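2024-03-11 09:14:02 INFO receiving multi-entity request
2024-03-11 09:14:02 INFO entity count = two
2024-03-11 09:14:03 INFO echoing inputs for audit
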Amino acid sequence: MDVCEAVRTGLAVRTFQDKPIPSEVVHKIIEAARLTGSSMNGQPWHFIVVQDRAQLRKLGALAKTGPYIAQALLAIVVVIDRTLYAVSDGSRAIQSMILTAWSEGIGSNWVGFVEMPEVNKILDIPAALDVLAVVPFGYPAKAVGKGKKKRKALSEVVYWEKFGESAK
Amino acid sequence: MDVCEAVRTGLAVRTFQDKPIPSEVVHKIIEAARLTGSSMNGQPWHFIVVQDRAQLRKLGALAKTGPYIAQALLAIVVVIDRTLYAVSDGSRAIQSMILTAWSEGIGSNWVGFVEMPEVNKILDIPAALDVLAVVPFGYPAKAVGKGKKKRKALSEVVYWEKFGESAK
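2024-03-11 09:21:47 INFO inference complete, emitting structure
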């Protein structure tokens, strides 16, 4: 799928079919993360591919905003170093994964984790690293729309030459 | 261009041709930003499209790591609110823009700005908001490669089920 089309139509998906994602597609998604650009090419990231159902259920139980991780057949846990641009770099990698997955017909949603030592524990993540997000992936259980999105109007978020100035 | 292809081949570009980007392509790029997903759909972002050469030169002069902004014909300044996930959300929007631009043959590079009141001043940005990045865009001055990238090996950054575990 074309990049513009993926960005335009991509939607958060929270209910998934019980249909596994082929391993070559899983590889495409993690390659998208690995190949993403980062500040000074620092690549301050680690990606844990979770497909074990018991682990997915534990993550879902821990995630206040993402209990649906428990129903997914795949989640990628994004772990970052504590460096200046690591949040930005990790977020860019996640966006690459989300768009790549979407272009393969797979939905996902960013589940944020803020300081959850339990997550580090069940995944053996060193205490010196942070979990930026857990992103569950799956084939959408319901038909997804054609990109009708609730977004602020262009004039509310895009300015020309200076902050607050509308198009010439 | 296909999403995978854009992620795979996309490279940072720092020297640009003196060839303007058509306005419909500029619109595609800012639409990609506007339509990106964000935490709780908060959209904590603002995008300033800078095409004025004097302003671009000023930004280039201020950017220690990005003097080449002065040579670009377009830069998009990404401004974020001070909310919990704004850095992540803004970074996702930038990644959408970079991939969209690349799929149109346009290179770019993320230039980070950390607390630069001068930038707020020349662009009339309220002091309560932060500049996350200035991203210059342009047609690459030199031929760009076919996606040969220096990245850590998959085994260094991707684990299976638990941190540090290699593929089964």
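2024-03-11 09:21:48 INFO post-check: Residues 3-157 of chain A form a domain with the NADH Oxidase fold (CATH 3.40.109.10).
2024-03-11 09:21:48 INFO post-check: Chain A touches chain B through 73 residues (CB under 8 Å).
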